[in-house]
Amino acid sequence: MNVRRSILIVDDHQSIRDPLATFMRRYDFDVDTACDGVAMRQLLKERSYDLVILDVMLPGEDGLSLCGFVTEHIGTPVILLTAMTDQADRVAGLEIGADDYVLKPFDPRELVARVRSVLRRGARRRADDAALAAQAAPAADATAEKRYRFEGWSFDLTTRELQDPQLSPVPLTTAEFHLLRALLENPNRVLSRQQLMDLTQREGDAFFDRSIDTQISRLRKKLESDPRQPRMLKTVRGDGYLLAARNITLAP
């Protein structure tokens, strides 16, 4: 039996919000709507959603701020609706945590396709998490754990646990786990976006443009004391990214 996926649409224009909700219900989505950030936050307190469709230009708290809140505190995937045509503005939306963006005006059929794509990626990540957990249980008994140590950090490949220099655990998504592993396996080396996609992509994954930028931004927030001036996870303009770390070791 198919489970109806729950969607929250946040847009201050009723002429967009209500017709879109009606359209998406035809595709068997369970849809709620909100007109601003206050209403959105209240609904998020009352129930959980599989995905949020969020307009950037909202009265009061804007969509980028709300997207950052959802990404940091709830973890629900977000698709931004934006009339911004500047590429830098759209990338800023992805870097703050959005999973995709759709430019206004849009074809609602395209939005449904984007929603389904984001939900599929989330389902694959959850399946990967379960598979890795199942593999880790017997591996812990049979072999010694492998652990990277770098700049005071500790990264366990078996349990997927990242610890900061104060030994506090730092949670990682599946995508962040694969990205950090790829960077640690190629330290102090510039890796292009395409190289990072090749190193982290698993069969069946579908990456949209700038997805690596988004994951780098999220990982940087966890590794860096000041993500705006990164010391380890650096951008090499026009070329890609590198992990600048000394004395990287891999040992039991």
TrEMBL record:
GO molecular function: phosphorelay response regulator activity; transcription cis-regulatory region binding
Spans traversing the lipid bilayer: none
Major subcellular location class: cytoplasm
Record localization: Cytoplasm
A Pfam entry, by short name: Trans_reg_C
Gene3D superfamilies found in the cross-reference section: 3.40.50.2300, 6.10.250.690, Winged helix-like DNA-binding domain superfamily/Winged helix DNA-binding domain
Span of domain OmpR/PhoB-type: 145-245
InterPro entries hit by this protein: CheY-like_superfamily, OmpR/PhoB-type_DNA-bd, Sig_transdc_resp-reg_C-effctor, Sig_transdc_resp-reg_receiver, WalR-like, WH-like_DNA-bd_sf
Keyword vocabulary terms for this entry: Cytoplasm, DNA-binding, Phosphoprotein, Transcription, Transcription regulation, Two-component regulatory system
Domain Response regulatory, first and last residues per copy: 6-119
DNA-binding region, residues: 145-245
One GO CC term on file: protein-DNA complex
Superkingdom of source: Bacteria
4-aspartylphosphate: residues carrying this PTM: 55
PANTHER family: DNA-BINDING DUAL TRANSCRIPTIONAL REGULATOR OMPR, REGULATOR OF RPOS
Protein name as catalogued: Response regulator transcription factor
Lineage: Bacteria, Pseudomonadati, Pseudomonadota, Betaproteobacteria, Burkholderiales
